[in-house]
Amino acid sequence: MTAKNLSTVATDLIESSGNTARHMINAYRAGGERVVSLLEQRWNRALKQSRTELTAETAKNATAAQLAFSVYYTKGLMLTTNGAQQVVSQLVKVLETGVERASANASLFEEKTGVTTLNTLAHATAPGALALSKLAAQIEQKSAELAGKIAGAQKPAAKRASAFSQRRTAKAA
């Protein structure tokens, strides 16, 4: 295996790791959306059970507070997961560029000096790198399955109205 082939394996490893991270971010997002949905259901049940003991104003304020919490939590979840996706994408690009440059520099070094130490090192490292790359591909596949299961258990997210627009609608009614 040449240094170029080793760089291909390293690039594959980086890509698999990036995909695994993206899958886990998607699973985190889906899980967070699920938590909001479960909390809304629990809140609504509790409010329904205690509605007879609450004034109309208190019930309305409790509903508005719950809606505001849900909206802000969901927005925060989207911002953080989108940010994490961007960080992963940039990191993958930087690492792949680094591998390409290192490979080019290694070839140039061997060409200029006639010393084949780096190629020998690439041959010695190749079996371990290949095994690690295969393992990373398996982990990537399992993470995709897990993220799909978590997202599949999630009901399709309906677009949320802001707490303010919901309150205006409630006042108008």
Give an account of the 3D structure.
The chain has 173 residues and is mainly α. The chain has helices spanning 3-50, 56-113, 117-153, 163-172.
The SS-based structural class is mainly alpha
Q: Look at the structure and give the mean pLDDT.
A: 86
Number of E-type strands = 0
Strand residues, percent: under 5%
Residue ranges: pLDDT <50 for 5 or more in a row? none
Q: Radius of gyration, Cα only, in angstroms? A: 26 Å
Largest sheet: none
* Element pattern in H and E: HHHH
The number of helical segments is 4
What coarse outline follows from CA principal-axis ratios? elongated
How much helix is in the residues? over 70%
Task: Quote the distance from N terminus to C terminus.
Answer: 73 Å
Layout: helices, strands, pairs:
Elements lengths: L2 H48 L5 H58 L3 H37 L9 H10 L1
Helix pairs in contact: 1-2, 1-3, 2-4
Task: Provide a quick synopsis of the model.
The protein is mainly alpha-helical. It contains four helices and no strands. The longest helix has 58 residues.
What structural keywords apply?
173 residues; mainly alpha; 0% strand
